[in-house]
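Field notebook, page 445. I keep forgetting to write these up properly, so this time I am using the form the group agreed on. The chain and the ligand, zinc ion, are recorded exactly as supplied. Prediction of the bound pose follows.
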Amino acid sequence: MKNQKLLAAFALLTMLLASTSATAFAASPSLLDQYPDLQHLTALVSESQITPMHLVAYRATKLAMEKLGFQRGDPSVLALTNAGSAIIDDRFPTSSCLDALTLTSGCSESNQNLIAINSGKWKPLWFAFYYKNTEQCVYAEVRSAVLASYMEKWMSASDKSTIQLEFLGLSDDEVFAKVSVENIEANYLLSNPEAWEEKMDNKVFGGNEFSIMTIAACWSRGMPYELLKAAKLHNHICPGLISGILIIEYLDKNLPIEEGDQYYIVLAVPPWCKDDAFQAIYDSTVGKRRMTVMMLSKEQTQQLPENVAGIYVRWDKSDDSGQAMVLTFDWDKASEMSEIERSWFKDFESYKWWYARLKMDIFMLDYLDKPEEFVSSVKEFSISSSSELMALRTAGTNPYVEIGLMPPPQPEIPTWIYAIIAVLAIALVITLGVCVIKLRRKTRS
Ligand SMILES: [Zn+2]
C-alpha cells in the first residue's frame, strides 16, 4: 500500500517535470525547426553559432531565389559580393557571409560562380545575384546600423536563438537599404544605353553598377580563371585590366618563367588598370618591390613609342641577372576592331565611357589567346646585376632614358642668362655704332 502511494507520487512528479520542460522547450523554439534550409550551415557551424552575419547572407540568397526563381545549386547563377572586404561599423568583418552564401545558394568560389570582390572596408555590404537564364540581376544592400546592432545583441545574448529569430523576423525593408532587379545582359545594355545610363545615374545598384555589369558580362561568356582572379582585386573588368591579361599571355609565350628562382619585376611606367592583373596573378606587388610605379608627363609620352605599356623584367635571383622587354599595347587597333572611338573612354558626360569599356571587354575576350594582335615588344635587353636594375628604379631616374629609348631631358636655361645676352648684344650694337661714326668722321677729316 505504502509502495503504491510512493509510485503514484513519483509518477505525478515525473509528469510535472515533463510538462515544465515541454513549456520551457516551447518557449525557446529551434531556429532549424522554423528555417529548415539553414540546416546547410551546420556543415560549418553549430546552430547556436549562427550569427546575424550568416543570416544576412541567407536572407539575401532567399530574396534572390524568390525574385529570380532559381534553386540552390543552379550553375546559371553568379553571386557577386563585397563580403570579406566590408567591415561593418569597423568592428564586424563580413567574411562569414561567404560561408553562408556558399552553403545556402550553392554558388562557390571553387565553382567560379561566387566572386567576392575587393572593396574599401568602410563600404556598405552588398550582394548581387545574376541569373543567366533570365538575364536579370538582384541587388541587395545591407543597412549597416541594423546589422551592427544585431551582431552586438547576438554577442551579449545568452539565448542566441531569440536574437537569430528576431533578426529573421525583420522585414526586408528593415534589413536592406536597397533592393533592385534589373536586366543587365551586356547586349541589352549596349542596345539601350540611354535608359541604362539613367539607372546608373540613379545608382540602382548602389554605385556598383559598372563592377556588376562588366563582371557578369565576362562571366556569362566564360572568362578564364586568371581574369576572374584579377577582377576580384580590381573589382571591375575594363579593357585596361584585360590588356594586362593579354600582356601576361604575351610574356607566357615570349619571356616565360623557366626556373624556380625566376620571377617578374614590372616597371609600371605608365601605370593603368593592367598593373592590378600582375599583382593578382604574378604576385608582383608594390610592397614586395616587384613593381615600380611611375607616371609619365604628356611631353615624355610624346617622346616614346606610341602606347608604351611598361618594362617587364624576368629576374633570375640565383644569377643576379634578368631579361627585359619594353612592351606596347595597340589601343588604336583595339578601338577600331571593336568599333568604338578611343575618345569615348574619357566621355564621362554621357553613357559613352561605360559603353566603350563594356563593348571592348566583350570584344577582347575573343583575343585572349592571340596577344600578339595588340601586344608588341619595342626593345629587349639584358640586365647583368641588381645594381643595374636598381638604376632603372630609383626616384628621379627615367628608366626609358636609362635604356636609351628616349633622349635625356634638355637642361633648362635660366632666364637671367637671356637677360645678360640681351644686355651684351645691346652693348655690342652701341659700341659698333660708335666705332662706325668715329671711322666716318676720321675718313671725312
Ligand atoms: Zn579598370
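OBSERVATIONS:
- Residues 415-444 form the longest helix (30 residues).
- The radius of gyration is 34 Å.
FOLLOW-UP: compare against the apo run.
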